[in-house]
Amino acid sequence: MLLVAPAVLLLVLFTFAPAVYAFVLSVLKVQVTGGLLGTSTAQVFAGFENYVDTLADPEFWDSLGRMLIIAVIGVPATLFFATLFALCLDANRARLTGIWRLAIFLPYAVPGVIASLLWGFLYLPATSPIGGQFIDYFGNTGIFFAVANVATWGVIGFNMVVLFTAVRAIPKEIFDAAQIDGASELQIALRIKLPMIAPALSMVALFSVIGALQLFNEPTTLKPLTNAISSTWVPLMRVYSDAFVNNNIYGGAASAFTLLVMTVAATVLVNVIGNRISKRSAR
Amino acid sequence: MTQATIDGRGRAARASIGKDARGGREQARRAPGLVPTIILIVGSLYCVLPVLWILIASTKSNGELFSTPPLLPSFSGSFWDNLAGILTYDNGIWLRWALNTVIYAVGGGLVSTLIAGAAGYALGKYTFWGSKTIFRTIVAAVLLPPVLLAVPQYLLLAQVGLTNTYWSVLLPQLVSPFAIYLCKIYAEASVPDEIVEAARIDGASEWRIFHSVGLRLMFPALITVFLIQFIAVWNNFLLPFVMLSNNELYPLTLGMYGMIMPTGGQPNQYSLVIAGVLLSIVPLAIIFLSLQRFWKIDLLSGGVKL
Predict the structure, then answer these.
(1) pLDDT at A145
(2) CB B153 within 8 A of CB A18
(3) How far is CA A62 from CA A58, A67, A218, B7, in A?
(4) Are B242 and B150 a contacting pair, CB within 8 Å?
(5) First and final C-alpha spacing in chain B
(6) Which burial class, exposed, middle or buried, applies to B193 when counting CB atoms under 10 A from its CB (0-12, 13-18, 19+)?
(7) Is the distance from CB of A120 to CB of A42 less than 8 angstroms?
(8) Where do the ABC transmembrane type-1 domain residues begin and end (chain B) (predicted)?
(9) Contacts of B18 in chain A (CB under 8 A)
């Protein structure tokens, strides 16, 4: 079909070709050749050497650990609050829901980098209106919450709206029937609405996990404001600094591929768990 | 505007009918209605206060930023100084960055929406050799981390001499797997086979059916896809970060990041950056909130059921 052609062409040129190229790079290395009379460099096949280097580097695992900590804080918080707000918006007697929905949606219109700059000022002791003088947002544990908070703040409204629309799609007759059976509104929310939006929830969870694995903007933007974030703080920052700062594109590509394998594994896992849960609640 | 917004129309009517039927019980249990409202107010404060703080902070000079109470605005006239400061910073480069952002986000958003619309329509309405495989491959591409692609994209574009140009930021973003996925779902749901058939019987070419029937029916979805793409491009930090070295080509995000970067935590430009942050949030927020009735996010949650 002609209509798919531009998409496929661009995808091949700018996504698949680079991905293949990245894989090729990840199994190459530079060798210095020529002894006494001037040196030249050549790319030679390295096998899995770069991968071994990546996996043997403790800093790689540390950066992975930091990313996981942020994901463990940020993903459940995003899911919990987005669901809570969505259910509250749909609650029968909630007031002025249009205004609250707009307000919670607002951060989505703020680009991630701008949001990080903004929160950076809120965290800085000198300018903080939220107790930065007393709370060390850039401390050893604080930094994880600080980064997770910026990420959560940016996506909570979007996820809330997705879940809210899912709640709205449930036929109203079900609620009426439950009410006649004497169910309270809280019971309806927890026992009917929540299980019925499980598919939407698992999709939101999936996107949150992918988002967490690709964490880059927030820590990179906060970095100039604090010493707590190193240039290899999360895996993608490491890939970036390998490739563009240390001129080791081969090692960077290998780290990126290792990460890709982990992303795919995590995605499959979330998908399987999500399917289990929605199947169980369908029964 | 309260109900008939993001989730589409018709809800308001249904909800109010439901309420009437339960009128009696409603009176008896008014108090618990406070709880959801309070939770929503707290959530709104969390989301809005940082933006309000930026507004407050932008009224302060650099000195006042560190000496006055953080939550009180200053009326020393520094607000205008800051605005003038950011607009004239480095010969007005902030405006150049703003213009670049518009080029990247609007241009990239429009073209990628059209491409995704065409691909989504084709994948949703026709089955042809390989169409399932193509769709699955496209969706799987969501998983590729942008940094993985950034290195080879840079190397490939460098070979054709396109790095450090507008193209280097625009081209890689023209096709978005997520947008294609949304368009396919929406095409399946909103372009009925009967209409396509009828048009075919009337002798319309497939191309004509696409642009006068398909595109028209998909229009509401395309607006949402455009807004999502616009935000995605405007959010993309890594690609311009990698591709551009000439700061005249920077988008706002990269430019302002650079403004805090060289000082390395030395706060002499903070008030300017704060004014810049304000200037870049407010127009965008106004545009997005005023366009909100065009958002059709139900197509996101609708997709889950298919």
Answers:
(1) 92
(2) yes
(3) 6, 9, 18, 43
(4) yes
(5) 29
(6) exposed
(7) no
(8) 98-290
(9) 172, 175-176
pLDDT tens track for A58-81:
888 999 899 999 999 999 999 999
Supply the angle between the helices A198-213 and A249-282 in degrees, to the nearest 10. Answer: 170
pTM of the model: 0.81
DSSP A44: E
CA distance linking residue A55 with residue B8, whole number of Å: 50
Helices and strands (H and E) in chain B: how many = 18, 0
The amino acid present at A225, given as its one-letter code, is L
The identity of residue B34, as a single letter, is L
**Residue B262 CB burial class (10 angstroms; 0-12, 13-18, ≥19):** exposed
**Of B273, B274, B276, B271, residue with least CA distance to B62:** B271
pLDDT at residue B24 greater than cutoff 60 = no
Instruction: List CB contacts (< 8 A) between B35 and chain A.
Output: 88
Residue where the block lists tokens 């008939």: B4
| Interchain CB contact of B13 with A (< 8 Å) | no
Q: In the CATH scheme, what is the code of domain B52-302?
A: 1.10.3720.10
User: Would you call A146 helix, strand, or coil by DSSP?
Assistant: helix
**pLDDT score of A38 more than 70:** no
Give the distance from residue B139's alpha carbon to the nearest chain A alpha carbon, in angstroms.
11
Q: Across the interface, which of A109, A112, A169 has its CB nearest the CB of B237?
A: A112
Q: Where are the domains of chain B?
A: 52-302
Distance of CA A34 to CAs A29, A37, A38, A41, A42, Å?
A: 16, 7, 6, 8, 10
Interface test with chain A among B304, B305, B306, by most A beta carbons within 10 Å = B304
Q: Which residues contact A142 (CB under 8 A, 6 or more apart)?
A: A135, A136
Task: Please give the structure tokens belonging to residue B293.
Answer: 């009735």
* Lowest-confidence pick of A19-28, A35-44, A65-74: A35-44
Rounded alpha-carbon distances, angstroms, from residue A44 to A33, A34, A243, A255: 11, 14, 18, 18
Residue A81: C-alpha distances to residues A179, A187, B5 (Å): 25, 18, 21
How many residues in chain B?
306
Q: In this predicted complex, what is the ipTM?
A: 0.83
